[in-house]
Amino acid sequence: MILEMKVPSPGESITEVEIAAWLVEDGDYVEKDQAIAEVDSDKATLELPAEVSGIITLKAEEGDAVEVGAVVCLIDTSAEKPAGDEAPKEGLKEEAPKAEAPKVVAVETKTYATGSASPAAKKILAEKGMDSSSISGTGKDGRVTKDDAVNAVPSMGTPAGGSRGTSRSKMSMLRRKVAERLVEVKNTTAMLTTFNEVDMSPIFALRSEYKETFKAKHGVSLGFMSFFTLAVVRALEMYPAVNSMLDGKEMLSYDFCDISIAVSGPKGLMVPVIRNAENLSFRGVESEVKRLAIRARDGQITVDEMTGGTFTITNGGVFGSMLSTPIINPPQSGILGMHNIVERPVAIDGKVEIRPIMFVALSYDHRIIDGKESVGFLVAVKEALENPVELLMNNGVKKALEL
What we know:
This protein is an alpha+beta fold. The protein folds into two domains: 2-76, CATH 2.40.50.100; 175-400, Chloramphenicol acetyltransferase-like domain (Chloramphenicol Acetyltransferase, 2-Layer Sandwich). Helix content is 26%, strand content 25%. The protein contains nine helices and 18 strands. Helix 5 (224-238) crosses helix 6. The model is unreliable at 87-115 (pLDDT under 50).
């Protein structure tokens, strides 16, 4: 019996996928539920498991875009599993003999010493800032003539003798979709960005004192993301317009906080969602961040885990970014950008002190978020991060960290 394997729907509204990589070869024996291919949609990379056991015949090439429901391979279920380790390559054509490599014919090239040019040619080349050794002369014995010098075009840079090759590769469907969405945001939203700076000293002190105990008890590190996530949740509750989005002519607001976190995966930028972050503790946020980051890194993240966020946090600081203007993740209306932490001189009570400072940026859709709300939101985030014991822990550090 020959089974036709069709592309399953990876999620709502997705009509096409791309064969990113075949994990088996044509003619291999595959087991049921064995991963046979990786497919890219415009939202994620997913594995395609074999529906039955048998000999597989591939019907699509790597890089092909295929519609959901299209046949990508056939599996012959009547074929017996091979006894040895190597599966038989049934139905394969004999390998064609390799074409003989073309012979390389060496062509002797004459070289000429610097200065092998007529006096007139030397003068013209000097005016152009060129040397006669860089010109192929057309005169007798390769001598550079006046015409050669007149026609010579100066190089725009100093030749270094290095490679000047180029390469071309096809962008993945996910990367193409991200590019389309970024352009769409720039063209369809009234995006503005407001900036502020945060003194990270209080968070540094808390992490220094409790990070080892926290990790020993909960199995996850006490990172910056939990502080930022809970500070954002507090600010969203204070400024609900930032936790809203446009739906036609209406503004849709949420009474929950689903926080998208931008992470870099093997296939590009991904934004898994921390659901109902308003109900999570420091331990809950850190555990969820770790779980989602591992799934994104291993290519196991699903479409459902990356949809439905109401606000996004992105951390360019892990790559060394000092300051940036993050682009809104549509259809959301706001995104908070974290950056690297640098020791800077700041004025504290009339004195200059060195403090670990992070610049933060809030990009927002000005169509539904006013300047007062955007600035107030970012100030609320700053206040919570600079006074976490009172504003995020209710003056109970050990209770908040569940120690």
